[in-house]
Specification:
The strands form five sheets. Strands 14-15-16-13-12-17-18 form a seven-stranded mixed β-sheet, with helices on both faces. It is about 35% helix and about 20% strand. It folds into two domains: about 280 residues, 3-Layer(aba) Sandwich (Aldehyde Dehydrogenase, Chain A, domain 1), CATH 3.40.605; about 190 residues, 3-Layer(aba) Sandwich (Aldehyde Dehydrogenase, Chain A, domain 2), CATH 3.40.309.10. The protein is globular, with a radius of gyration of 24 Å. The N and C termini lie far apart (about 65 Å). It is an alpha/beta fold. Bound molecules: 1,4-dihydronicotinamide adenine dinucleotide and magnesium ion (MG). The site of 1,4-dihydronicotinamide adenine dinucleotide (NAI) has 26 residues, from helix 7 and helix 8.
């Protein structure tokens, strides 16, 4: 996948590899000539440059997607599905270079994160490729005099904006269902992690007609906003922060176009008194996504621990968390990599300082990052747990997007549920107990789009993934999600009792 790398012709600038963006089947620099340097956050070194796309590039990409739409939308769904499956084959064969690219640009550890992400991308294309024949309509039983049926039609050009935390999986989760359903796509990658997404685009472009998929790089303000506001974009699909999601929804409202939003979270992780077990400790660590530096919207970042087991459980948790290895993302022994960039790193440190400054907070493990030694070479945040927390603390209310967990004691189930639901977010939740009744009762009462009982895995294709409250609207990751988010129903009604031509 090296063919898109070209030498940069910059005057006097460091010779960083330049990765162009995909517009109308061509690999191009930004029309304005600007570039964005991509940093490896584990070493704080620049690794590549990408175009700094602006409104002019958005214009060209949307025009290309609009021109490609009629032909693409009329291809038989099974044939579109076959192309997605061929993309999956290429992605599967090339998963390792993609994994290394993701590890380098995001700082995510190769073994625990980047490699599973790269493999997951192929699976997503294979899943949606296989679903193409399910774009079925219905026949309505309105009587013998009429044939009334529905068609699932594509919406048009989809504008998609994605974040950096699992960049290639999140790109695939929009591209694969949108294309399967017959739409064309203009995607803007996140400025911190565009390289893996461009590799994905290259794999796609081997099989897709020009303009069906366009991938732009650039900042939110210069490239994301003109894309979201473009009059020819008929559907907006966004993953990222709640504050930007609110803007996107406002722009969708101006044009009355449908929008899917996958936003932040502050998810509860609930441990019942019968669950003081090692496998639950592992589950809490998995839920917190510590091995992704907790840069995950589904992080179970509020730990509701029953008071009866509170101290013992935290001792076990501390022992396990302290055993996780922080370091070079490319080292196979590394469990936890680096925070994406300086801004996020400083934001996370600010929350740690906030906890350290509280008299009522007990630091169980972690704290501020080391000021010297190998970890000081990158944006490495140490897994940190504060106990004795209250659900009212800023640490318990705001999405930190870093490895800072707060443990909140509980005794009464109703009060615990009240606290768990006292959040403007509602994305995920985790419940650990041997008692099936308690597990399901809690699962049903929690306000979240996804509740896991006695497990803390990642999303799998087919699962209805998405949030409630300010965590977002819409679902995209399943057959039903594709149908709801990337098609529109048309009803056709035909009168079967027309008088004969002779009459
Ligand atoms: P962000 O929401 O600013 O960025 C996500 C995407 O939106 C990027 O592609 C960005 O370029 C684009 N964007 C930013 N401003 C835009 C605008 N005005 N118009 C159109 N597009 C725009 O997220 P950021 O700044 O990277 O992270 C900040 C916080 O957001 C994190 O600390 C975390 O709390 C949350 N977040 C949540 C994510 C999730 O998966 N739900 C992913 C990333 C961040
Ligand atoms: Mg970076």
């Amino acid at each position: 996948m090296d063919s898109i790398e070209t030498a940069r012709q910059g005057a006097g600038a460091a010779k960083l590899p330049f990765r162009p963006m995909l517009v109308g089947g061509d690999w191009l620099p930004a029309r304005g000539g600007g570039t964005i340097a991509v940093e490896n956050p584990a070493r704080r070194s620049l690794i590549a440059e990408v175009p700094r796309g602006t409104a002019e590039d958005v214009e060209a990409a949307v025009a290309a997607a609009l021109a490609a739409f009629p032909a693409w939308s009329r291809i038989a769904p099974r044939d579109r599905g076959r192309l997605l499956t061929r993309i999956a084959d290429v992605l599967e064969a090339d998963a390792e270079p993609l994994a290394r690219c993701i590890a380098e640009e995001t700082g995510n550890a190769l073994r625990t994160q980047a490699r599973p992400e790269a493999r997951g991308v192929a699976e997503i294309f294979r899943y949606f490729g296989g679903l193409a024949s399910e774009l079925k309509g219905e026949t309505l039983a309105l009587g013998e005099h009429v044939l009334s049926y529905t068609r699932r039609e594509p919406i048009g050009v989809v504008g998609a904006i994605i974040p950096w935390n699992a960049p290639v999986v999140l790109a695939a989760l929009k591209i694969a269902p949108a294309l399967c359903a017959g739409n064309t796509v203009v995607m803007k990658a996140a400025e911190d992690a565009p390289l893996g997404v461009l590799m994905l685009a290259e794999a796609c472009q081997r099989f897709l007609p020009a303009g069906v998929l366009n991938v732009l790089t650039g900042t939110g303000a210069e490239c994301g906003e003109p894309l979201a506001r473009h009059p020819d974009i008929r559907k907006l699909s966004f993953t990222g922060s709640t504050s930007v999601g609110r803007l996107i929804m406002g722009w969708a409202a101006e044009r009355i176009v449908p929008v899917s939003l996958e936003l932040g979270g502050k998810s509860p992780c609930i441990v019942y008194p019968d669950a003081d077990k090692d496998w639950v400790v592992e589950g809490v660590i998995a839920a917190m996504r510590f091995t992704r530096q907790s840069q995950s919207c589904t992080a179970g970042s509020r730990l509701f621990l029953h008071r009866r087991i509170h101290d013992r459980f935290l001792d076990r948790l501390k022992a396990k968390v302290d055993g996780l290895k922080l370091g070079d993302p490319l080292d196979e022994a590394t469990d936890i990599g680096a925070i994406i960039n300086r801004r996020q790193f400083e934001k996370v440190c600010g929350y740690v300082r906030d906890g350290l400054a509280r008299d009522d907070a007990r630091l169980v493990t972690g704290g501020l990052p080391p000021a010297d030694g190998p970890l000081a070479q990158g944006y490495f945040a140490v897994p940190t747990i504060f106990a004795g927390a209250s659900n009212d603390w800023r640490l318990a209310r705001e999405e930190i997007f870093g490895p800072v967990l707060v443990a909140i004691p509980w005794e009464d189930e109703a009060e615990m549920l009240r606290m768990a639901n006292d959040s403007h977010y509602g994305l995920a939740a985790y419940v650990f107990t041997h008692e099936i009744g308690a597990g399901l009762r809690t699962a049903h009462r929690i306000e979240a789009g996804w509740v896991q009982v006695n497990q803390a895995g990642g999303q799998v294709p087919g699962h209805h993934y998405g949030g409630v409250k300010q965590s977002g609207i819409g679902r995209e990751f399943s057959l039903e999600g594709m149908l709801e988010s990337f098609t529109q129903r048309k009803n056709v009604s035909v009168n079967l009792e027309v008088p004969s031509r002779a009459a």
